[in-house]
Amino acid sequence: MFKIYDISMTVEPSMQVFNDKASNLPIITNVSNHDNGQAVYESRLDMNVHSGTHVDAPLHMLKDGEAIETIGLEQLIGHARVVDLTHCEACITRADLEPLHLQRNEWVLFKTRNSFSEAFDFNFVFLREDGARYLVELGIRGLGTDALGIERAQPEYPTHRSLLRNNVIIVEGLRLKDVAPGTYFMAIAPLKLTGLDAAPARAFLIGGM
What we know:
Layout: E1 2-6, E2 27-32, E3 42-46, E4 54-56, E5 77-84, E6 91-92, H1 94-97, E7 107-111, E8 126-127, H2 129-138, E9 142-145, H3 158-165, E10 169-172, E11 182-190, E12 198-208
Parallel strand pairs: 5-7, 6-8, 7-9, 9-10
Antiparallel strand pairs: 1-12, 2-3, 4-10, 4-12, 5-11, 11-12
């Protein structure tokens, strides 16, 4: 037997968005419904590609970086390790990561206090530059965070750029509140977009009961 853990954010007009910016909120508009005599019910969705759970492409932070379609599904499906970093108050550093004994080509998902609030926290836990460089040294394959950003308050975005320059995939906006630390089978399915800097995604883990 196995259990499926949905670790993606629900897309809705009242959802948590980066910096609480109204322009980042999704707009859902009904364009046809049964009450106005139409035969079908249809809606329109307008949203920022970085809102909710999403996959960043190198283009997001690197001039002439590759767009989202260059990240294949085979890179987003496989085993991943959820690590407990709920003790980190402000940021995740190299010193926080070293005791975890992460391995080359591993996917790692950060569970922090970010997962326990549905309101945007301007002081969310982020990955500091030295932590990002350590992960690059290890040669990890991908990184997921339960914040809507992998970093904050770092001029020139060194965390993003260190990871993306070294082909480390970044997934932001995960929900890990109900997931215990451990290894799971992971599937992340971004929308099939092209030429863009990110794509919203449905993400889930499969583990034992």
